[in-house]
Amino acid sequence: MKKYKYIIIALISLAFNGCEDLDREFVTTLQRDEIDASFENVSSLLNSIYSELPDGLTPIGGAAMMASASDEAEFSIPTNSVQNFNTGGWNAVSNPESFVWGNYYRGIRKINQFLVSTDKINLDRWKLDPSSQIIYEQNLAAIARWKYEARFLRAYFYFELVKRYGGVPLLNTELSLNDDFTSYKRNTLEECINFITSECTIAAQNLPLNTSTLPYANLNDLGRVTKLSALALKSRVLLYAASDLFNTPSWAAGYPNPELISLPSGNRNDRWKAASDAAKAVIDAGTLPVLGAYKALFNTNNNAEIILARTSGRSNAFEKINAPIGFNTATGGNAPSQDLVDAYEVRVGSGASATAVMFNWNDPAMAANPYANRDPRLDFSIVVNKSNFGTPARPVQLWEGGLDGKPIINASRTGYYLRKYQFESFNLTNNADGIKSWILFRFPEIYLNYAEALNEWSPGNADIKIYYDRVRSRTGVAMPGLPAGLSPAQVRERIRNEKRVEFAFEDHRLWDVRRWMQGPEFLGKPLRGVKVISTNPINTTFSYTPVIVENRTFDAKMYLYPIPQSDLNISKGGLIQNPLW
């Protein structure tokens, strides 16, 4: 058999971020036929593919979240490259997420290799051993399942590219170093959406419902993709396909290739119905979980609400980056904005007659006590002045001159700190650490996807209120439900705000604002924080004044990322750049 080196993380030419990357590829000492023949080696290859799933805790410069590229937050260290998104200082040559194109195509290439390898695995050492028949059956079942896990992961990687770039090249066969990569073109957006959703459908038909139903399930299966994962991705993809960005090419008037950035003209109601049907398929697939305590959800690796998550190794890096600056080794991190804080509603009244209203700085009572009677998710997600935090716990001092406030270097620039995802039980002085997961899909997204899509094509449908209320009625939150008598436009705004609050710092907001085509309204306006001043010598009363933290920029071209210039150069005209870049 012909032998050749197996390249485990090669970035091949055009599709894999340029020839210069080939000089840095890691080549294993294993020959390709050794990989194909070994159950263990093919299993390791699949694990390496799983490692390409995103970890949104520290993606930019090893510290900043994408929330700090949106109206959710401001990163406390101004030299982090995430700031380029906010100032407009990014382009096809320099993009804070420049790694995305290459990373996901690397994952896609590994998957294409993996799918070939799974058909060549030699199981004879178990098959021919009468005492190893159980192991043989287990391995056969695992190989069959792996193929559909890999196809889901490829679909997921493609969607991560599509939501950033529009139509991208679909490369779904194993590639050779001898291939002519200048011949590859971008597929249309419609072709990409159709391929991704078709792969989701096939994966869902061939994967177990969830990890508890996996054959020979064990704790190592908790991060594996399942039928619910595939259905959840399909729900998200079809929601994006129905939304404004992919149906309104007028933002790029004059662009000669609209098929790369928008879907063909058609009945939008049909697309919204497809999105609602996809979300309902997740809901109908099995028993729905009881939504438990919100805060605990982000500090666990096993919660029935979570459909799919990526688990990281032991670390306390996130806590050191995001804890209030007055705690040992903390650096301030991703500081929530006043714009986000204002999105958490105020509860008025109690019991069945309670209502929820938006916070209003022009209301003297609200302005004087801005954190009273707020949606509990505010406290679960964000540290405000005088919040208890940390181990040992103490009130956080966000007023000017306080332990955690200005003018300390790298203190929060917004007057808030992030609580969500932090293990407050960690004593950073003692360097305590733990394992945390980055949630990729959870049930409340499906509920709100369903409500959003229904409201667009079937306004007034009773399920809108049912699933909107299901998210808000979780244990420890119990916010009032959707009131009667709202117009479809008012319901739309309620659902959008609910997504903003429920999924704060989960890497939804930046993409939601783009797909709703509200970039100038939310990403291009000045970001606000709060100025906290102690008004007595013993620091028990305070004044709160909204202030502008940063003037930000959003141009129409920023609805999509530019194709990396290095890949455009290699393609010699084969790849077409996105509009206005």
Could you list some keywords that capture this structure?
alpha+beta, Serine Threonine Protein Phosphatase 5, Tetratricopeptide repeat, two-stranded antiparallel sheet, 21 helices, disordered N terminus, TPR-like_helical_dom_sf, cell outer membrane, Outer membrane starch-binding protein, SusD-like_N
CATH fold-level name of the domain at 1-59 and 97-187 and 556-581 = Serine Threonine Protein Phosphatase 5, Tetratricopeptide repeat
Radius of gyration from CA coordinates: 25 Å
User: How many strands, which pairing sense, and closed or not: the largest β-sheet?
Assistant: 2 strands, antiparallel
CATH architecture title of the domain at 1-59 and 97-187 and 556-581: Alpha Horseshoe
InterPro entries: SusD-like_N, SusD_RagB_dom, TPR-like_helical_dom_sf
GO cellular component, one term: cell outer membrane
Domain SusD-like N-terminal: 74-239
Protein name: Outer membrane starch-binding protein
